[in-house]
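Teaching assistant here, posting this on the class forum so everyone can see the example we discussed in section. The complex has two components, and the goal was to see what a joint structure prediction looks like when all of them are supplied at once.
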Amino acid sequence: MSGKKGSCGDAEQQCPAGRNEMTLDELPVGATATIVKVLSKTRGRKKFADVGLVPGQELLMEAHAPFGGLLRVKVMETSMALHRDDAANIVLKTGE
Amino acid sequence: MAKRFKIALAGNPNCGKTCIFNALTGARQHVGNYPGVTVESKSGRFELDGMEIDLVDLPGVYSLSSSSPEEEVVFDELTKPGIDLILNVVDSTIPRRSLYLTTQLAELHIPMMLVFNMSDDADRKGLKFDIPKLEKYFGSPIVRTVGCRSDGIRPLLKKLAQTLTELEDHGVPMLSYGADIDDAIAAVAGRIDALGTTAYSHVPSRFFAIKLLEHDTAAMRLTVFHPVAGAVEEQIRHLREKHAIEADTFMADRRYAMLAGACRDTISMSQAKRREISDRIDMVMTNKILGLPLFFLIIYCTFWFTFVCAEPVMDWIEVFFGWLGEGVKELWDPAVLPYLRAMVTDGIIGGVGGVLVFLPNILFLFFAIAILEDSGYMSRAAFVMDGVMRRFGLQGRSFVPLVLGFGCNVPAIMATRTIESTRDRTVTIMVLPLMSCSARLPIYALLIPAFFAVKYHALMMWLMYVIGVVIALVAARLMKATLFKGDGEVYLMELPPYRMPTFKSLMLHMWDRGRMYLQKAGTIILATSIILYICNTYPEKQEFQQDYDAAIAAVQERQTGVEPGSDIAKQLEEQIIRLENARQAELMAYTISGRIGQALEPVFRPIGFDWMLTTASIGALAAKEVFVSQLGILYAEGETDSGSVPLRVRLARNYTPLQGFCVMLFCLLSIPCLATLAIIRRELNSWKMTGVEAVGLFALAYILTLIVYQTGLLFHIGVGITG
């Protein structure tokens, strides 16, 4: 589950969005995707890593909160709420 | 002497840890705060097979990464010497996630026992565990439990007793994170050993090597390890160059990879994952459209439960204290220690009773909150409300405490403990006193009808509440933009599956808060009742401007012979009341409160207050509703409640509507009662912030009232006497 690398390697700039690549805040409700990388500029990157938001992990977008702000994501069988701004730093890959 | 053991209880949030703690220690708990932070510390004691056990309930955390105050507390506690055993509670329905913390605890090489909790749910989910293999892997005995029912605790106690007797030969896990990282760990650990420091000799150097390699702030702060910093950076550089992995997250990545491997060998899933009931409930509860209305409905039910259901109990308490006061008065001969008698019956029983009346409110409220929290709804409420609250610099979890503030600020401030972010919690606490609590209601109820026409009553009342809310939200925004600038903590909140709360934990929850309130009533309220009583009574004036007794006697003489019920009789009756009132007012002006009010009058005159209003607002420090009774005494109504028409008539004769409005505005915004200040100090754990709060609120109230009063005077708004 570890060691998979995103298509844009470890370059620190924003990844050019590939065909199947998007960030977590763009993932529609009900869709699943796999984490490619968590940008290193992300605040609290370690906190996210500790709850399982690490490359290779699959997640499911469960819900968007009313009036913006929070996203509800299921990762490793646990529902986590996180902020849209932080989610924009998590790069995903959908489908195979 | 019985053998003593210190056991630390560790686990993720929502893993059922508190439940197990309660089941083990019962009510024999000590709840406090860790020094310097607002993290709650809980410890308790129990006996097991003749062994005495001190159990420390550590805050629930996902990791030992010191990325939150809770995690730092856990790190500090676990690296202190003296822990005989770690009891690690694991939610066995999600083993891969729960065991993540276990991999870090295992590196401490402190004897550990794993509690695979919620095993009934795990069975239902179709999870099968190879327990002997897992025990070997973590070098720790494992017991399976089903939560906090007593039949779930018994095997735990049995295993615990056995483990404690065999502490000497506990197993040591040797976890492997992959050859590259294991080499780096060994290299750094070697350097730490070479330092020869003794401060942390009870913790394996390997533990700190890992922490330093992942740039853990708590470990990097320890000065004893500063000499190895160079070696650590070298290893990290090496890892990055050779394997393209990064310091702050590579350990997380490897731990999860390691667990995935371990779980593949030891845990199997026999049936396909089905959609859990909890998720189905959430389809409705956190629905984008239905979520908010449902939230408001649930909050309404909470209020209804708190205020309507508690009402009969409150009546009983009120009756009881009335009866107690009368009883003491009857039994206590007025000739014996008359001052003390008056103080006990009027001051203490009246004052403390007046506060204890709210105890049912507090208990019912916290029972309701405990249901919302233990069931898991509270985090849904925060999720649903977050978007709205964030616009005002607050967050989802701030909402419930703010609304509770309309009832009473004290329990509302206690309820802010559900807010995890220290900054958001501080801001919420600081603006909370601006929520117009129910104790301010009697003031409005007295003044609004005195000064305003009936058609404006509801509007004025509504206006007072809205002013409070608007200023609170603006203040929160301003504080976030100035005092508490910056991005703050990263928001990450778990929404645990819904669970049925147990009655025992609900009662414990309720009792925790109730006990705090009782302590407050027994200390600060008792003291302020006595002080206020003394200030309102002494020194007693002996020489009056006129001989009231003689004047009253003269009127009474004229009463004889006058037909009762006639106009003249009524006039005479009124004369007597007026004389008695005048004497009361003279007495009051002579007392400490009266003198303070007169001395401060120049300060308060610019906002439209005379010495009597000033005196009453000082009294309101004890409790807001005291303002009304103080004013009653000053206008010599004796015992007054807000329904008294004569007091209103007097007020209308003496003050303008503008002054009336200014009084309400000042009472709404200024320093809350002393009980609120005391609870703010306790919850913020800071005298300085409490001082800032008190001065800030006073300044806010004074300046706003000044602006309103002077503007009103300038434009002649509401300056005519209406009475």
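For the discussion questions: Chain A has two helices and six strands. Strands of chain A lie at 21-23, 32-38, 58-64, 70-75, 78-83, 90-93. Think about how each of these relates to the inputs above.
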